[in-house]
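Notes to self after the Tuesday call (sharing in case useful).
The group wants a holo model before anyone commits to mutagenesis around the pocket. I volunteered. Ligand is zinc ion. Logging inputs and output together so the record is complete.
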Amino acid sequence: MKCRLCLNEKELRKSHIIPAFVIRWLKDTSATGFLRSGTSPDQRIQDGLKSRLLCAECELLFSQWEKPFSEKIFTPYVTKELDINGKAQSIHTSFEYSSWLLKFIISVQWRLLIYETETTTLEINPKLKTIAFDHINLWRKFLLSETSSTGRNETHLIFLQSFVSGNGTLPKELNENINFYLLRIIDGTTVYSEKNLGVYSKFGPIAAFTMLEPSSIPTSRMKNTKIHMKGTVSSIQEIADPFITDFIFITRPNEIFDSTILSQRQTDKISETILKNIPRTLASQSFRIKNQERLMKYFKRK
Ligand SMILES: [Zn+2]
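Result:
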């Protein structure tokens, strides 16, 4: 089969779209030590979304960008900046990066875009479809360093934290599992409306949003989020673009949790695992976030 990056006929590897280190972190910090997938919650999964797109050599190229993202941004943010309740502590708020960050994010968005255009029927207008396919080609060249531009688009890196620590009134459509979504869910998909198109990936509490149409967002609506070829990104941000905030905070959590109703048998199974392992459960982040969700009910506006 043809590798999607180098286009050579080679044996392709079945690999994670969202990198394995994120999945390992989730497992290590969860109450049961197992994961459940968003779409079929009755099955314990040990892995995230996998797809056969790359040869071994091209996969190695991608792992060179994953490593600095894991070491310089992901790990400091989840272990130092966020406390066990998922609340930002203003200890580690600034992250330096060079070209590996945009390469890493685009490598994920590129695979998501290929995956979604091939496995689902994207119900988008022809203009947006053309933009999507043009970016698949352009990003391939960018990842191979044949061009230094990612095209007409903007990538924003968004640092998320527990809602309990935020200020202001919460919209009533907010899902009561919102904190679990923001802090613990691995996600990746295209996001579109009649006129807008973006690609979204989420590594636990860090999300990346690449806007393709419109290709830029006024800086007044997204502060300290935009990623360049090199620079410093701060986790103290303002996220106020309605297309992005509606999706991350309202639409997507509702989509995910409406489809994840655990059967009674599965709920019993989780309780059993928790009872067998009480010290681990009490110390785990997923258990604490569940408790915060109970509090969320009182914050909701009627
Ligand atoms: Zn290849």
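Two things stood out.
Residues 56-81 form the longest helix (26 residues).
Confidence is low (pLDDT under 50) at residues 39-47.
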